[in-house]
Hints:
Helix content is 55%, strand content 3%. By secondary structure, the protein is mainly α. It has one domain (3-110). It has a two-stranded antiparallel sheet with strand order 1-2.
Amino acid sequence: MTNRTLLKIIKAKLDDAKGAWPEELPNVLWAYRTMARTLAGETPFRLTYGTEAVIPVEVGVASIRREVFHEENNDDQLQINLDCLDEVRDKAFNRMTKYQQKMADYYNKRVKLRGLDIGDLVLRNVTTATRDSAQGKLGPTWEGPY
């Protein structure tokens, strides 16, 4: 099941349960925690516990994961997954760093640098701290020139 399909299912479920969102919130959080992120390439669940979660749909339907599951080997496999968790986290961190660098390069390609010299007139952004409260929300967003 793709992330997009899962998001559509979640949205439809929440639309059906307009006033009952507190009851649906655990399901939405479960879906969020078990969906792979583009940035890290892993699910938050796997980065926390070292293994992929079995989603409720897989419990009732025959799947390869359930067919090859052996309860007597489960503890050993979980321990191996926990031992390898640092490597999984390092790979996710490297993927995340590479993705962030790619996004920064994409942004920096399109930025036009403007050099300012002494004596150039510039405008300063009005912040919440420097805004005149008497002017309200329609007051100027820039002050200057300086």
